[in-house]
Amino acid sequence: MKRTILFLLLLAGLSAVSGFLMSNMSWIGRVGINLVHKEYKFLKVWWQGGAVVYAALLFLFFIQWLLQKSLPFALGKVVHVLLFFAAVYGLYFTYSDFSDDFTHRLLRDVFHVGAYLFWAGWMLISIFFISERRKKPTVADSKGSAAA
Questions:
Q1: Residue 75: helix, strand or coil by DSSP?
Q2: Cα–Cα distance measured from residue 12 to residue 14, given in angstroms and rounded to the nearest whole number
Q3: Burial class (CB in 10 A: 0-12, 13-18, 19+), 49
Q4: Which residues contact 71 (CB under 8 A, 6 or more apart)?
Q5: Would you state the pLDDT for residue 102?
Q6: Which residues touch 57 (CB under 8 Å, ≥6 apart)?
Q7: Where are the alpha helices (DSSP H) in the chain?
Q8: Measured between alpha carbons, how far is 38 from 24 in angstroms, rounded to an integer?
Q9: I need a labelling partner for 106 at 20 to 30 A (CA). Which of 6, 35, 47, 145 fits?
């Protein structure tokens, strides 16, 4: 449990940094959000952007936790590895989009790094579950199951 709480605090810090970096977009990016893409106004305020990133990472953490608990141990590891590569693909797709789309290039590199941190967070979630070890049954567990 302590490991999970510390990890969720790490994700909160990562989300705060991500929100801060995305809020430091270029002037032209702010104008674009105010005039055209009003649905992204939350990115202009660092804590709102960080809260959205953290909520998305918590959602992914919860989904992967459910998978870890419901799937057999080995299959769960395979699923987490596949989800890790899905996050790598998302990072690559985001990088490619930021490199190829002129309007996204105008947002500045700090904004891009903030977006990349979301994908890094998802990769960390997958690594967190991949590195989890199988729990060994204790003497108390075996006595409890024999009595039941």
A1: helix
A2: 5
A3: buried
A4: 79
A5: 83
A6: 11, 14, 15, 118, 121, 122, 125
A7: 2-23, 27-35, 46-70, 73-100, 102-105, 109-130, 139-147
A8: 17
A9: 47
